[in-house]
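yo

u said u wanted the structure for the complex thing, so here. seqs first:
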Amino acid sequence: MTTKERPKPFLIPHYCKGCGRCIDSCNKHCITAGTEIDPLTGLVPVNLDLEACNGCGLCIDACPEPYGLSPMPEGVDPSNFELQDPAKLFGEKQSAAPPTSEIPDQIIPLPRVEPLVIKGNYAAAVGALLAGCRHFFGYPITPSTEGAELMAKLLPKLDGFFLQAVSEVATVNMMYGAGGAGLRAMTFTSSPGFSLMLEGISYMIGSELPGVFINVMRGGPGLGNIAPEQTDIKLACRGLGHGNTHAISFTPSTPQEMLDLTMLAFDLSFKYRNPVVVLGDGYLGQMTGKVTLPSTMKRPGIPAWAVYGDAKHRANINTSIYLDETDLEKHNHKINAKYELMEKNEQRADLFCADDAEVLIVACNTPARMAKGAVEALRSDGIKAGLFRPITVWPFPIDLLRKPLEKAKRIVVVEASNGQLEDELRLAVSKAGIQSLPPVDSVRHMGGILPQLEEIVAEVKGKKVAA
Amino acid sequence: MSTVFYDKFERHSHAEGLKGRSTHYCPGCGHGLAHKYLASAIETLGIQDRTVIVSPVGCSVFLYYYFDVGNTQAAHGRAPAVAIGHKLANPDSIVVSYQGDGDLASIGLAEIVSTAQMGLPITVIFINNAIYGMTGGQMAPTTLMGQESATSPYGRNQYMGQPMKMAELISALDGPIYVERVALFDAKQRNRAEKAILKALKLQVENKGFAFIEVLSECPLHLKMTPEEAEKWVKETMSQVFPLGVKKDLTETEAWFNPPAAIFDPGMVMTVIGGENQAPKRNCTSFPAHIAPNDISLKLAGAGGDGAQTAAMLIAQAAVNEGFDATHIPSYGPESRGGTSYADVHIAVGEVLSPASPRPNILVAFNAPSLAKFGPQVKSGGTIVYDSSTISEPPPAPAGVKQFGVPFTGIALTLGKPVVKNVVALGALQAVTNIFPTDTFLTAIRQALKEKAKVIPLNEEAFARGQKAVAKQ
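structre next:
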């Protein structure tokens, strides 16, 4: 073998850190520790004296730097060379990453079918399948397990993946991976599990990755119990992990909405490249109701930004790292702009007898159903009651509250929590600059007890509406 | 220069100055070598487009500066979970989880162990340098006994536990097919490391399974050594604790990972979901307004196992089949504790507003405590049906409420199946209230049992017996 076939090493001293791994590797002792400090790097590169070099290449294998010791290119004067264009020095790359491109979603018509009679947890699972979700990651936790169990039963029949993770922490990171690959991934969880997922949700938001979290809320703090509460409103609205985080958070109140909002959650999650939370309560998860299926389903494509693992997406990266302070601030401004869009476009609420209501009941999830019954009972007694039911708690549907607030003389917030919905209401009112908030009363229960229709009626009747 | 490295490291401080061509690693660090061998393997196997590398938290967090492949940066310790997400999202992708010792052997233990046991074809490159580099020289799970670090300033002792031998631990699991520990301290070891990484990646390309390469690596800065001393330390000291070599090799395993593409055929999806395009025949001509004008409230109560929930579901299904709205909620409120099971059902012309039944129009009671508790709540004009087999001395019916005793359990026993007592109860309910026609109930029962068709006749018989028992009264 000639030395021409085995090129000698070549080194641009700026890219040598002087570690000396190459010194040992050279049997011919061609390489010695340097003595002169490189003025650009402040490091001391090695010296090459290639008289005795036989081109064995071991020094090249020993060099940790990609642009460190390399085979000598032909026609290069190593004594005086500055690396500008690697293509000139090392030859063109065989393939450069092509521009990224999108595979678009397809909307597929569904045959018309009879309504299903299913529980809320099942309805959300069915919604996910129709939204094109074929990747479920989760850890069993009551009272959300039926959703996971149905996915475990149905996904294999659609050649999708159901994976029971080692923990909720692993779950959210599997979603980070699958969502990062551009696919529709989801989980079912309940409050303690949701707490464990928060770090990962912050990462998803930072990396702008989609994913849908169905959190069937239960009693807390701590292990609490498995009965229904609404005590993760605070987490979803104000505490989605560390940093500047928000996510659209739905509060369905019927099995039908569990399906519809889960489907919508996937679309919005991809639209904004941000996780979406569906907050159910333990009761809604178990509640059976009539569920009408939509007229179309989705076959998702692959977005242009995804790290899918193919040529069209090779140039992409999912990361939440912005080391440079100005870069990170810029990234946060970008995220804030998305939050503003969500606040502008995604507020949702259901108003029932609210137009002329003097007593406006504010409630979401299952308590909103008791409240709806209470409104009907109160109206039949001649009391002008109405219901304002947030379907999104973040963004709080403040724009839809303005009109009923004009007539309302009193607000009664009905919730199965320590006042977390009321906090959101008050914060939204305050941020919107609304000065004239009428007196706010509440019907609250914790521990897994839901406010009852009679209690709401009694609270409304117990205090006269101010004239 | 491998073509798998970027021409210019734009992600490294926007490639300012020398950063466009120079890694962020310290002189003598082993990461650069592992990077080179990984890049070379990707190039050799021709998988650059398909590769996704998951970078961890630790010194190699910035691996994405260098590799011209799909990149994902993961939370501390979670790279294997993220890798699973990528692999299942695109089974054709080649997924590498590149992790350090803090990431893999401390905070991420659950993820690496469960991922390895799962055995998906994923390649893990584990850089073990016995110290925390990025955070500045603290104790790692792989720090040697007696080794000083910022958080073991007097040397690692028994109270801090002993170093984690990950290659041995992972090789003891059933999932992995290839586990090897390699080093970088001399040309021979480097050659082995390069070959091991190539082999691990090739096994993934062949869809054979999970491979784990532990690389004993030098961190001269935090070992407070020169690069040469660090190589010597790894060779003479560290590799005594972490013996080099192949720990597991099942590389002759057949390829097994070849999942089919997900199904999006609408007909198939609808079949799986259970959507029926055939509307059940309607039997009602109008809402059963003789019970309540537009919203009927029912409660079914008994002990767990009485079948109150199933019966409630059947009523809800029957109502929806007739074009009404219906809800069913299981045990509700604090009084549900203690082995009782009860169900609230609503049937409404339009929409059920409140799904709870604190004042039902109809009570079906399977035992005495349920009857005693809920009987008084039944609305005037309402109906109670109770199991006279278990309730021999019923309290008097509340004013304006009709009360019927039917031996649900007794009839079910004569049919040889005590579990059908809830269907007996439904028959009795139908006969007493005429809430829906008989066929409406039978249709709902057949729907519910369509996958257990054998027991349909028994249930039909139970329903009929419940009806007959009322007729006799």
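Chain A has a mean pLDDT of 93. Chain A has 15 helices and 21 strands.
cya
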